[in-house]
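Section handout 9: paired folding examples.
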Amino acid sequence: MTYVLPPLPYSQDALAPHISAETLDFHYGKHHAGYVTKLNSIVTPELKAHSIEEIVAKGPTNVPAGIYNSAAQTFNHTFYWNSLAPVASRQAAPSEKLHALINKSFGSFDAFKTKFSDIAAGHFGSGWSWVVQEKATGLLKIVDTHDAVSVLHDSSVKPILVCDVWEHAYYIDYRNARAKYIESWWSLVNWKFAEENATL
């Protein structure tokens, strides 16, 4: 199959002022698009029969590095765009059910927000900060992955939300102030998407 760049779920200026149209032009239009183009140019005939999710779920040790990185970055970015929503149309807070799960998992929403922000801001180098749900317990937890690595190969969890902490996600708007970008990320969290991914 030929892999296609998924359309953004909103216009490129819809996340402003927290994330600018210029950032989306580069981040989505060049970086994300570049991963899709690269994947199509290097994927093997055997793997080409699989969806991006299926390739990523095989894990970084079971797929040639270039193919895995391109597929994982394509999936991660698509999940990231869906983890965000314009301020004007987003659900401003978690639903009662999701809020209860957050409290059960972390003690309080404030504790959850602080822990997530600390892990995302403290991640060394490039990568991703995820909220995932443990399939065995139903509880939420926070994990970070390095570089292109996704969480899809971990069959014990399912992704709920993600924050991109590669510099290209925020450098135009925030330069090297990752913590300020993460603070703005909270103003864009798509709680409806999170609830759709979670088992409540």
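Moving on to protein 2 of 2.
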Amino acid sequence: MTAQPDTSGAGGRGASPPVDFKLLRPKNYFANERTFIGWLQLAVTMGGLGLALLNFGGSGIRIRISAFVFETGALALIVYAYIMFWHRADRLRRGERGTWDDRFVPVVVVIFFIFATAINFGLTFHKKAYTPPVDNLSAVTMSWGQKSTIPRQL
């Protein structure tokens, strides 16, 4: 009869479970890093959209709100990517089995993009109701403080 090797770890005291060496392959670590970099690329794209809105979208609170929504989403995505990268790396080091895919967050990101785009279009095309002045005097415009030369009709 042959003696079986001790696979319980730590000299037979049962300190750690046996490790499946298929999970410790370098390709698994690199796949985790590629996933992390993919999430970061998406976050940079979202942040770029927000910055483009701020720089080229004109001035006003509507543009700032849209840019804030995109920038907040980008920062949340960076935090999520960082947390998931370290969580998966820890699972790889411990040799855990199980599912590695994430079915919830990609759906949330798509819904967020739809929501942020809808906010952007809604705020861009929203028209304030304008009521002309009641008297025949010249109206002062809101933006530059110049007097209008258009005669008002009652």
